[in-house]
């Protein structure tokens, strides 16, 4: 099939490369000249497993890049809109990019086309895209608008696309539903997985993707409701973790106990510093707006966001509890990205926590396996954040180690070396990466989420050393001020 994907961000680039992988002829459209030039030269602008391989495999063959939307529309049977829908101040999604793409498509229609929303959009966007296209002269019989939401997770987006739990096709006419089903044919009939060059996925053996046909409005709601539900699961376990801390229980044991109930499930029940990223925070606010505008009170969404926000404050309080005062403390931060497997910093809890610690007067040395380039831009050259070349370098001489992203590499660090490099043997783990018993054995003071603190036999000595250091810092500050 001939397919255009408008927008070469995370969703558009992955979808375009994967449609080419399924055998389609794909044109990726973007209005950013620099991005287009880089893509044409063979660069991969995001850190995403298997994406460089797919771009390399199909670039210049079944995958091309263009700035000419009208040309791409004329070339294609299916046009996927995958442009940004950033939040406005009130939480509503800003749909102006979607609207301008719809206008552009309307002016170029010369034959029957299916216009597909792939960006996360509120319910009714489908009807609006249709209205805008009609107002801009697109003949009603020459197009349909469908919703085909994306459930890609950053870091595993390619495998998520090719081995989906489900493909949702929200289409109000059979003609457009059939064309969309045809685009995913190699996944739903299982032929893609028989290809020896197929990208490996989480399943071995025969696989057939499941396609769910719904109305366009239901598909729009499915996307918002899925993300809101997952965010709610995370906030739920984080709230349970707080209760565990208050009563001296262990949230990892509680998680095992509730997650093994097949009605609840284990996934998305990892406690931590809260969810971040480009989707959950934004989609939760947008879904709340949709509910409100339509007269529905959905307080559960407010509470989900509140618990998430509070999780960062709770972490800062833990650091304070471990270190007594924060001013002048030198902290090693392991992890900057909003989760492992990505270089994305958008809404990253780590960034928010570092900014709060900087305000408290801490100096930070950070390390992240993928996100340091973006972090250097985020914090700028004049901030008190330094970047280390590796985790051990970050730990050297720090007053404590803070773990903020769940990179697996961190869990494999040598505990004896951590203890030897740190000035005080203190680890505050916002992702429960380490086992408390192992930390205790290594002689580390260990604070994690929803589990009892490990303070070791020498805690009194450490606390008095901290008090002494804090008084010294204060004396130095007083002298400097004088
Ligand atoms: C999410 C959805 O999973 C995906 O379906 C949708 O298309 C886009 O939004 P993504 O933002 O890439 O994907 O990340 P995800 O893996 O869902 O994690 C989101 C955040 O929740 C991260 O900050 C992660 O660290 C956190 N998280 C996740 C937890 O704190 N605990 C968990 O158990 C799972």
Question: How would you describe what is shown here?
Answer:
It is a single chain. The protein has helices spanning 10-21, 33-40, 51-58, 69-75, 96-108, 125-135, 157-162, 174-183, 185-188, 216-247, 251-259, 280-293, 299-323, 349-359, 372-379, 391-395, 408-411, 415-421, 436-441, 459-481; strands at residues 2-6, 25-29, 63-66, 78-81, 113-117, 143-147, 167-170, 211-214, 330-334, 363-367, 385-387, 400-403, 426-429, 445-447. It is an alpha/beta fold. It folds into three domains: 2-214, NAD(P)-binding Rossmann-like Domain (Rossmann fold, 3-Layer(aba) Sandwich), CATH 3.40.50.720; 223-309, N-(1-d-carboxylethyl)-l-norvaline Dehydrogenase, domain 2 (Orthogonal Bundle); 311-481, NAD(P)-binding Rossmann-like Domain (Rossmann fold, 3-Layer(aba) Sandwich), CATH 3.40.50. The chain has a six-stranded parallel β-sheet, sandwiched between helices. The longest helix has 32 residues, at 216-247. The chain is elongated. The N and C termini lie far apart (74 Å). The structure holds uridine-5'-diphosphate-xylopyranose.
Looking at this protein, list some descriptive labels.
N-(1-d-carboxylethyl)-l-norvaline Dehydrogenase, domain 2; binds uridine-5'-diphosphate-xylopyranose; single chain; 12% strand; six-stranded parallel beta sheet; Rossmann fold; 482 residues; alpha/beta; 20 helices; 3 domains
């Amino acid at each position: 099939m001939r397919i255009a994907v408008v927008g070469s961000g995370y969703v558009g680039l992955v979808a375009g490369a994967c449609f080419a992988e399924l055998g389609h002829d794909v044109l990726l459209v973007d209005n950013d000249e620099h991005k287009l030039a880089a893509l044409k030269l063979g660069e991969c602008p995001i850190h995403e497993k298997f994406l460089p391989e797919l771009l390399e495999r199909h670039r210049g063959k079944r995958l091309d890049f263009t700035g000419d939307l009208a040309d791409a529309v004329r070339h294609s049977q299916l046009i996927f809109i995958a442009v940004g829908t950033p939040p406005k101040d009130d939480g509503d999604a800003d749909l102006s990019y979607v609207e301008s793409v719809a206008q552009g498509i309307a002016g170029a229609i010369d034959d029957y086309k299916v216009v597909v929303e792939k960006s996360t959009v509120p319910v009714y966007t489908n009807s609006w895209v249709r209205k805008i296209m009609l107002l801009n002269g697109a003949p009603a019989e020459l197009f349909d608008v469908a919703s085909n939401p994306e459930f890609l997770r950053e870091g595993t987006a390619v495998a998520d696309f090719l081995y989906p739990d489900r493909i949702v096709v929200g289409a109000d006419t059979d003609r457009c539903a059939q064309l969309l089903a045809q685009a995913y044919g190699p996944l739903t009939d299982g032929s893609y997985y028989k290809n020896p060059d197929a990208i490996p996925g989480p399943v071995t053996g025969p696989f057939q993707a499941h396609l769910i046909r719904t109305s366009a409005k239901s598909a729009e709601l499915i996307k918002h409701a899925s993300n809101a539900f997952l965010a709610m699961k995370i906030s739920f376990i984080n709230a349970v973790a707080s209760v565990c801390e208050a009563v001296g229980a262990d949230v990892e044991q509680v998680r095992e106990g509730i997650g093994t109930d097949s009605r609840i499930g284990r996934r998305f029940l990892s406690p931590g510093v809260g969810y971040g990223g480009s989707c959950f925070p934004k989609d939760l606010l947008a879904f709340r707006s949709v509910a409100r505008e339509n007269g529905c009170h959905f307080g559960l969404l407010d509470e989900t966001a509140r618990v998430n926000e509070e999780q960062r404050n709770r972490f800062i309080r833990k650091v304070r509890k471990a270190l007594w005062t924060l001013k002048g403390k030198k902290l090693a931060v392991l992890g900057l990205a909003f989760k492992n497997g990505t270089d994305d910093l958008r809404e990253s809890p780590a960034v928010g926590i570092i900014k709060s610690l900087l305000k408290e007067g801490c100096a930070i040395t950070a390390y992240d396996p993928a996100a340091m380039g973006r972090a250097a831009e985020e914090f700028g050259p004049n901030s008190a954040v330094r970047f280390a070349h590796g985790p051990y370098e970050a730990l050297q001489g720090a007053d404590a180690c803070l773990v903020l992203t769940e990179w697996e590499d961190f869990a494999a660090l040598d505990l004896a070396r951590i203890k030897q490099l740190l000035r005080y043997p203190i680890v505050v783990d916002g992702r429960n990466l380490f086992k408390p018993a192992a930390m205790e054995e290594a002689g580390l003071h260990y604070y994690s989420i929803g589990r009892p603190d490990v303070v070791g036999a020498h805690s009194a000595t450490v606390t008095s050393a901290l008090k002494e250091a804090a008084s010294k810092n204060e004396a130095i500050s007083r002298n400097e001020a004088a």
